Amino acid sequence: MARIIGVDIPNEKRLCISLTYLYGIGRTLAMEVISKLGLDPNMKAKELTQTDIARMNSLLQEEFMVEGDLRRFVQNNIKRLMAIQSYRGLRHRLGLPVRGQRTSCNARTRKGRGRTIANKKK
Question: Considering the domain boundaries, does residue 108 fall inside one?
Answer without folding.
Answer: no
